[in-house]
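Exercise 7.
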Amino acid sequence: TNAQGEREADFINCIALKKTAENIINYLSKGSLAGVDGRLKSRSYENKEGQRVYVTEVICDSVQFLESKSTNSNQSQGGIASGQYQPKANHVAATSQNPFVNMNDSIDISDDDLPF
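Solution. The predicted structure, written as tokens, is:
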């Protein structure tokens, strides 16, 4: 937060693949608050003017949604957020999101139905 009480933003290039990318597309929008775990990758390329451009990007291993859906939609509609961020309901948590925690029955799955 700056001296005027406004949240400052840094825009860092991130690369997400597969399911992580799908979740970002489906659940985040411009201005959403997100936490990213990953590794840095530096590369360079030559632009149209023939100049060497150096880029540092984050290769995302995981992305956490740090705002509730209602907070996120209020911000995208120009509303004012409360300033308290709650994890999104579909935030990936190791134990609390396991749909099979209270399941006592076994699941019958043929080996032919498995994708691996």
